[in-house]
């Protein structure tokens, strides 16, 4: 069977480059193009060299619409910014190319645009492509369902100092999973505490943020009751597992019906 061909958006960024490196080690996948933000200083350089692997004889582009039309990939993979990712998804619709993104921080309007795009092409949208994180989400759902609102739930996340959005998309996803399992919604979330906040309300789900250094990503879900607590943690020590998860999503999404999917669908959870 021919290798799955990919167009990667977000090179030479950390995650875009990680996807190129992971693809270089995966015989079932071949990168046939890569794009960066318009005007990038790296435009015209070799994609492999930029990503830390041997030269791929592919030049970095800064126009994803033109790149999609030229290389006609099987799937497009994106790790950029919310606005760029939304534009890229709409360009994929025009070329009927399935889309995978791990970009986070979408606004309500951008999510609506992605919803419209997903009505026409299959899309995997996940704030975290790690297989381990999604197993953690399953465990958090089980704990929340069994323990109920009688146990306090808190989510703590830690990321590198350069991360632009907070809380992380993964932290919010953990909170959403906990809320759903307890019959709640986002109105139960408490994203920050400062000053005389009073006693903690029953059923509140706290989501707290830490930033610093070069931490790839850490998430802990706390379930606390008088006399005992449960801590469920996932710690990422490199971006490789995110890139491998993105490739797994790309391999899965080809041939799916139009719609918006997550890593839970990819993993069959």
What does this protein structure show overall?
Helix 6 runs parallel beside helix 7. The strands form two sheets. The chain has a six-stranded parallel β-sheet with strand order 2-1-3-4-5-11, with helices on both faces. Strands 7-8-6-9-10 form a five-stranded mixed β-sheet, covered by helices on one side. It is of the alpha/beta class. Strand 9 and strand 10 form a beta hairpin. It is 36% helix and 23% strand. The chain has two domains: 151 residues, 3-Layer(aba) Sandwich (Rossmann fold), CATH 3.40.50.720; 106 residues, Dihydrodipicolinate Reductase, domain 2 (2-Layer Sandwich), CATH 3.30.360.
Which descriptors apply to this entry?
single chain, 269 residues, alpha/beta, Rossmann fold, Dihydrodipicolinate Reductase, domain 2, six-stranded parallel β-sheet, five-stranded mixed β-sheet, 9 helices
User: Low-confidence runs (pLDDT<50, min 5 residues)?
Assistant: none
Write the CATH architecture name of the largest domain. Answer: 3-Layer(aba) Sandwich
> Largest sheet, if any?
6 strands, parallel
Briefly, what CATH class of the largest domain? Answer: Alpha Beta
- The total tally of domains equals 2
> pLDDT average, as an integer?
94
The percent of residues in helical segments reads 25-40%
């Amino acid at each position: 069977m021919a290798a799955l061909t990919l167009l990667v958006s977000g090179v030479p960024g950390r995650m875009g480059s990680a996807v190129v490196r992971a693809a270089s080690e995966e015989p079932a996948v071949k990168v046939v193009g890569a794009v960066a933000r318009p005007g990038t200083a790296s435009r015209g350089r070799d994609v492999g060299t930029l990503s830390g692997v041997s030269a791929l004889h592919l030049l970095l582009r800064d126009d994803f619409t033109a790149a999609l039309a030229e290389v006609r990939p099987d799937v497009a993979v994106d790790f950029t910014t919310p606005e760029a990712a939304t534009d890229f998804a709409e360009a994929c619709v025009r070329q009927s190319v399935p889309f995978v993104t791990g970009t986070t921080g979408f606004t309500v309007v951008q999510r609506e645009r992605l919803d419209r795009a997903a009505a026409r092409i299959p899309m995997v949208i996940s704030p975290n492509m790690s297989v381990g994180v999604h197993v953690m989400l399953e465990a958090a759902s089980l704990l929340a369902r069994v323990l109920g609102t009688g146990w306090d739930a808190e989510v703590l996340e830690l990321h590198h100092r350069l991360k632009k959005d907070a809380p992380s998309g993964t932290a919010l996803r953990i909170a959403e999973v906990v809320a759903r399992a307890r019959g709640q919604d986002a109105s139960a979330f408490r994203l920050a505490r400062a000053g005389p906040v009073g006693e903690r309300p029953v059923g509140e789900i706290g989501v707290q943020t830490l930033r610093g250094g070069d931490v790839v990503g850490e998430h802990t879900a706390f379930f606390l009751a008088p006399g005992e607590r449960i801590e469920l943690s996932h710690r990422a020590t490199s971006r490789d597992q995110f890139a491998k998860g993105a490739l797994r999503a790309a391999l899965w999404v080809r041939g799916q019906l139009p719609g918006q999917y997550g890593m839970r669908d990819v993993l069959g959870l």
